[in-house]
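pls design
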């Protein structure tokens, strides 16, 4: 195809040897088209450059069929599964996905928001949990936006994620049922709203069991392996140790586990450990990690569906959709050692 002559859907249909209606279905409702036909259409699209030209036309008309996904760390094991749900739902409705990787740099986040002033994206999916400082100067009114994985701290925008309070409650209830009464919470945060919600679930579980909250057992954390190790070392500097560690995520649990092993302790014989997220590595840890599973692909699907409803003026802008978590019981939890629980 010549660059001066934009490809049309008719060009794609001719090369793929299918009808125009089939091309349209293959693009917008791929699940309704046979795999072999879908492959032919995709090859024809690649040959003609039809998708890129369609995007260019939408930009000239002053609107876009692209959704910008801004994430702080695309290496996060939670990201890829949520992205699958986002992208499948977007493609089913004729939208594409652009990924903006901030690498935890607020300035990069601000640069990605400038997309909206040039109509390069129709809406925003935000993984970062915070809108970059200065975003008000970039766009007078934020485009249709949805937060996922982490509620947006300063944005007041809709959110789709797991029910953090319920998930944490399931983990602490398990530890209490095993006989633990001295349970540390590792990973409290004043800026990560999801972590704060998990602490609330922890506190609710203790209260329901009649266990007084010991503030010395609530440790700050940043959700990293090193943060888990540091919190553990701080606890060991005191005489008052827990028998179980309820960690705000699986990375923190890994840090706690490594720190305990370095001190010569066995899990769960000496201490029990739980995580949150159920990242793929959780089942390969030694021992395998008892944790709370987030329905990540479903979160992505619901978030994109909500954003598309907002783009069609069919959804309220203050919505919060919380999906139910599952407790995944593996080998890192057992009863407290004799004499250490009272």
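designed seq:
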């Amino acid at each position: 195809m010549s660059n001066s002559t934009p490809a049309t859907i008719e060009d794609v249909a001719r090369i793929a040897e299918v009808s125009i209606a089939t091309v349209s279905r293959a693009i917008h409702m791929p699940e309704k088209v046979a795999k072999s036909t879908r492959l032919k259409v995709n090859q024809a699209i690649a040959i003609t450059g039809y998708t890129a030209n369609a995007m260019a036309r939408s930009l000239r008309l002053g609107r876009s069929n692209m959704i910008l996904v801004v994430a702080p760390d695309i290496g996060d094991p939670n990201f890829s599964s949520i992205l699958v749900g986002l992208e499948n739902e977007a493609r089913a409705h004729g939208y594409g996905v652009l990924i903006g990787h901030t690498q935890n740099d607020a300035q990069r986040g601000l640069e990605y928001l400038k997309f909206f002033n040039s109509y390069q994206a129709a809406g925003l999916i935000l993984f970062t949990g915070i809108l970059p400082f200065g975003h008000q100067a970039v766009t007078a009114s934020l485009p249709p936006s949805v937060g996922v994985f982490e509620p947006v701290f300063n944005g007041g925008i809709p959110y789709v994620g797991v029910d953090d309070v319920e998930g944490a409650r399931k983990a602490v209830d398990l530890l209490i049922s095993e006989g633990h009464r001295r349970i540390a919470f590792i990973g409290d945060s004043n800026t990560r709203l999801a972590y704060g919600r998990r602490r609330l679930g922890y506190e609710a579980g203790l209260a329901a069991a009649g266990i007084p909250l010991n503030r010395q057992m609530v440790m700050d954390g940043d959700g990293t392996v090193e943060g888990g190790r540091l919190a553990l070392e701080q606890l060991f500097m005191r005489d008052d140790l827990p028998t179980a560690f309820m960690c705000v995520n699986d990375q923190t649990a890994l840090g706690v586990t490594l720190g305990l092993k370095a001190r010569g302790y066995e899990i769960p014989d000496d201490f029990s450990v739980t995580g949150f997220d159920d990242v793929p590595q959780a089942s390969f840890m030694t021992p395998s990690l008892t944790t709370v599973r987030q329905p990540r692909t479903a979160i992505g699907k619901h978030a994109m569906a909500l954003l598309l409803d907002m783009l069609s003026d069919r959804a309220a802008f203050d919505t919060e959709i919380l999906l139910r978590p599952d407790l995944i019981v593996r080998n890192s939890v057992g009863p407290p050692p004799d004499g250490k629980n009272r």
